[in-house]
């Protein structure tokens, strides 16, 4: 489906007044062209993205102008796989996980955006990779990938609080890679209860001894 849309994009761009390609993709390619000449990508007016995007699209200049679209469409496919994988790691059934992955892969919005040349699929893939790492208890790789995601596009910063709350809860993997904070609090609560119970028993024992005297 995505390959067909990529091919159709070439036809529409060549023969129709309204192009299929997103205007930002043209900006990305121009920025990559400046970078290929040894200049700054920001010499291209309106380029307001990470230089990593321009670097990733250097093959647009050296190989084929559709390289970036193929890259973004590939990221979109990887995101679909990650949706299913993350859900499986979270204990969701295989059928439900496959349904969710299919909902992503066959969503007209996602496959249209990526094949028109938007880099948003890369950000989605990176954020799903963060969830995948966290679900496997790999906090440091998750932090590194999250840093790259916020460097590419600043808006993933809004996920910082949910991630902190997730980590603060201590729950990382349903298979028991880490002990939940709730269980830890329960253990501390049980210890305190046992301690108070022991003190109460001692007090009662002392009271009984006094009465006997």
TrEMBL record:
InterPro entries attached to this UniProt entry: PIG-M
- Which pathway? Glycolipid biosynthesis; glycosylphosphatidylinositol-anchor biosynthesis
Enumerate composition-biased segments (Gly residues).
Answer: 197-213
Keyword Endoplasmic reticulum attributed? yes
Q: Where is the composition biased (Low complexity)?
A: 183-196
**UniProt subcellular location:** Endoplasmic reticulum membrane
GO cellular component: a single term: endoplasmic reticulum membrane
The membrane topology term of the UniProt record is: Multi-pass membrane protein
Chain's role: Catalytic subunit of the glycosylphosphatidylinositol-mannosyltransferase I complex which catalyzes the transfer of the first mannose, via an alpha-1,4 bond from a dolichol-phosphate-mannose (Dol-P-Man) to the glucosaminyl acyl phosphatidylinositol (GlcN-(acyl)PI) intermediate to generate alpha-D-Man-(1->4)-alpha-D-GlcN-(1->6)-(1-radyl,2-acyl-sn-glycero-3-phospho)-2-acyl-inositol and participates in the sixth step of the glycosylphosphatidylinositol-anchor biosynthesis.
Record's protein name: GPI mannosyltransferase 1
UniProt organism field: Mantoniella antarctica
